[in-house]
Amino acid sequence: MSFPATGSIINIQSYKHNGYLHRTWGDTAILKGSSQIIVAGNDRIIVTESDGRQWRTREPAICYFSSKLWFNVIGMLREDGIYYYCNLGSPFMWDNEALKYIDYDLDVKVFPDGTYILLDEDEYKLHHRMMKYPPELDAILKKNLNELLSMITQKKGPFEPGFVEEWYERFLELR
């Protein structure tokens, strides 16, 4: 299987458990692409919702996707520090069209001081019921949520000090 080459510009697509397209992010630059992780960067890109509505991101971001973890991490560089938006979702897939994953509703927002909040629990419960998430999936997501929270509190992986800044510098060099 091939992976996107460093410097290539890709789209990111998230789907829901029922297979429907949820959201697409355009013009994202690959900073590292391998079978294990993809690190990418973007800045003020257009995001398209499933209903066709579009909006533009407000700041540069570094995106971290894993082929093993059931979450991805977006580090957003703002004037008052780095904020993280973490999506509970399937490991990424790359099919030469886009980087794809299934979004499982639960999100964690991390603030520059390291505090965090869990978001969209009601949406998760609703979709869990509507789309009939199997018990095995629920267990995987809970396990990965705990792993994500551990990485946040221990400042590991994409939360490690300097991680986002280093990849952002590489993003700027590509532009």
TrEMBL record:
Domain DUF402: 18-156
Protein's UniProt keywords contain Zinc-finger: no
GO molecular function: hydrolase activity; metal ion binding
Keywords, comma-separated and alphabetical: Hydrolase, Magnesium, Metal-binding
Keyword Metal-binding set for record: yes
Highest taxon, organism lineage: Bacteria
Protein name as it appears in the record: DUF402 domain-containing protein
Organism: Fictibacillus aquaticus
